Amino acid sequence: MISITQILTGLISALVGGILATYLKSYLDKKNEIELSKQKINEDKYRSMLIFMACALDINKKRYFSLNEQVLNETAEDYLNQIKEYYYHSILYSSDQVILSIKDFIDNPSQNNYIKAAKAMRKDIWGEKTKLTFDQIKL
Fold first, then answer.
1. CA distances from 68 to 10, 12, 73, 112, 119 (A)
2. Does residue 24 form part of some domain?
3. Which among 135, 129, 99 has a CA at the least distance from the CA of 117?
4. pTM here?
């Protein structure tokens, strides 16, 4: 025969298990929401930064992009200054590799450093290295 102690033990175990499962699900959902939010922020920042980098390399490319510029950038140097601002922001949210690749671009703006930064950004967002080579990516 089942005793009252066994019944209470079973009920308490089920209750504690339910509370723990609910807490764990809530924690994991919140963590996932934060990761998705971070990924969206990075994606938006990286997209803008890549456009600014392209314009720093060739100011004539400006006409091909829809830009939300806080300050009107008129020269390649203006775009380089905008990239520097994003660089300082990136210290908060970017991986080490992205930060270093942006710094390399700022120090030496080139198509090679542009693609290096883009590949680092892609890895940071999606967690995967690209198998594309420099020659496959460059235009």
1. 60, 57, 11, 26, 23
2. no
3. 99
4. 0.71
User: pLDDT tens digits for 87-120?
Assistant: 998 888 888 999 999 999 999 999 999 999 999 9
What's the residue count for the chain? 139
Residue 65 counted as domain residue: yes
pLDDT of residue 29: 82
pLDDT of residue 1: 65
Radius of gyration of the chain (CA): 24
CA dist 53 and 60 (Å) reads: 12
Vertex 49 angle, CA 75 and 63, to 5°: 45
Provide the pLDDT for residue 84: 92
Answer whether residue 8 is part of any domain.
Answer: no
Q: Which domain range does residue 57 map to?
A: 36-137
As for how many domains the chain has, the answer is 1
Is 43 domain-assigned?
yes
Dihedral (Cα; 66, 41, 138, 115), 10-degree rounding: 130
